[in-house]
């Protein structure tokens, strides 16, 4: 071999020696997978899938908010118009039936008014015309209030609702009215979507996220998604008013205005509750308030 060939041979041997010392010999075969690692990976993938699903849903609602609101309003408005048309065209068989139609029309009007109030409040908060009343609030006491306001509704649906679990003396800087409304709205949505099972509301201090509230329930996975053609069809469940999607969007907006956030957590993804689906993170005061 000439001089150049000896040089290239030396370079190749040198690179091979360096690579062997850095990375070692190549494995003869792939190592067998760890069952525990595979289980953790599946749980993480499920959590990511649910989180992606929730983000996608929220982006769809934000992107077509006006169209979404129009669709939400149409259902009670149609009920109101329909009942009045029956009365005005003298299709009632008796004064009792006419009064029944009037009661149904009044119920639709109340639903419509409630929805409009919610939309206007969220819009005013977003644009600053309605100010938050931030104040120190003990979380345990607020959770007890929410439980007292919702546990009868759960009992009427034969659902088990456990007493809230929260360490006493934990304070947050929040608007209690809006946090109470968010929690009641989310619990009400869970109750309406569950044919059976139980609900729990727990809260704890998080070392890196402030205070965390978990709303755990036994809703099916299908409850977290709505048809893409929702704007072209009637809501599948007329009792779910406003729709679950609009409830989640309003809750997310309100929490963000108060410095919190709303997340969708896969079952088994948290140590606090293996059934957790909704996780609310809110600020934690550095010191207790007397």
The portion of residues forming beta strands comes to 5-15%
CATH architectural label of the domain at 56-62 and 133-282:
2-Layer Sandwich
Mean pLDDT across the residues is 76
Number of strands: 7
C-alpha geometry: globular
Considering DSSP H and I runs of 4 or more, what fraction of the residues is helical?
40-55%
Q: Uncertain regions: pLDDT < 50 for 5+ in a row?
A: 227-233, 269-274
Q: What integer value in Å does the Rg equal?
A: 28 Å
User: Assembly state here?
Assistant: single chain
Largest sheet: 5 strands, mixed
Measure the end-to-end span.
Answer: 89 Å
The helix-strand sequence is: HHHHEHEEHEEHEE
How many helices? The count is 7
CATH class of the domain at 56-62 and 133-282: Alpha Beta
Q: Name the structural class.
A: alpha+beta
| CATH superfamily (homologous) name of the domain at 56-62 and 133-282 | Histidine kinase-like ATPase, C-terminal domain
Fill in the CATH topology of the domain at 56-62 and 133-282: Heat Shock Protein 90
